[in-house]
Amino acid sequence: MMADLFDTLTSGPGEAVALAPGAWLRPGFAGGEVPSLLAAVLAVAEAAPFRHLVTPGGATMSVAMTNCGSLGWISDRRGYRYEQVDPLTSRRWPAMPERFLQLARRAADASGFPGFAPDACLINRYGPGSKLSLHQDRDELDLDAPIVSVSLGLPAVFMFGGQARGACASRHRLQSGDVVVWGGVSRLAFHGIAPLAAGAHGLTGEFRYNLTFRKVMSEPGAGAGAQR
Ligand code: MD3
Ligand code: FE
């Protein structure tokens, strides 16, 4: 049996919950680091401000985004892609803070994906009502590497859609300090975030932040991903 919302509500820190094959929720894995992670997020946002991107279809996203690392994910009328330069500032994205890298690697190691070396970290900021519709993350060249997500601030309801577009298969609450590693067959699963409930968090106020660590570029000679 896969876990559902109630399992994640009742599991304590330390134990991993299998959300799906290759997808491990680690409640509270980053718990003690939340204040320092948040400080690093705000420092990134000083150099590369949060902004609401426009989709290729012309809709403005309700989630505000920025990035750090050598590549950053962007969307505009021309499509979705990774860029080395922030189109808002015309500068390179801020470097990935060492503590981000360490946390992402530690979580991936614990989940059976040793040596994770992300080159991109997308930072999402949710305000009241912000949502992310069901989607796949498939703009990365290296689909063998997992994605590691870290939640900070207000809780959110994560929707897991499985391998096919369509209905949400399960829901899970993601709370501040929770880390999820998405690898294997879950790497291309459909997923989204339900509209954020209004609230007040002691550290983030009305916001929820989510970090997703991604390996965009394949290593030379890494195989299938290399020629995509
Ligand atoms: C499952 N972010 O940035 S994190 C995204 O909370 C994104 O901001 C959400 O989806 C957020 O693309 C969800 C959980 C997550 C991230 C990546 C995944 C789940 C995933 C990639 C594949 C499968
Ligand atoms: Fe995603």
Automatic annotation (TrEMBL):
Write out the residues that bind 2-oxoglutarate: 124-126, 208-214
Q: Which domain of life is it from?
A: Bacteria
Query: Entry's Gene3D superfamilies?
Result: Alpha-ketoglutarate-dependent dioxygenase AlkB-like (2.60.120.590)
Alphabetically, the GO molecular function entries are: broad specificity oxidative DNA demethylase activity; ferrous iron binding; methyltransferase activity; oxidative RNA demethylase activity
Provide the residue positions that the database annotates as binding substrate: 73, 80-82, 139, 165
Cofactor(s) annotated in UniProt: Fe(2+)
Explain how, and how many, cofactor molecules are bound: Binds 1 Fe(2+) ion per subunit.
Question: What does the entry give for GO biological process?
Answer: methylation; oxidative RNA demethylation
Q: Which GO terms describe its cellular component?
A: cytoplasm
Q: Which UniProt keywords apply?
A: Dioxygenase, Iron, Metal-binding, Methyltransferase, Oxidoreductase, Transferase
| Fe2OG dioxygenase domain location | 117-217
**Which positions bind Fe cation?**
135, 137, 191
Q: What is its EC number?
A: 1.14.11.33
What PANTHER family does the annotation carry? ALKYLATED DNA REPAIR PROTEIN ALKB-RELATED, NUCLEIC ACID DIOXYGENASE ALKBH1
Task: Report what the protein is called.
Answer: DNA oxidative demethylase AlkB
Species this chain originates from: Lichenicola cladoniae
Q: What is the lineage of its organism?
A: Bacteria, Pseudomonadati, Pseudomonadota, Alphaproteobacteria, Acetobacterales
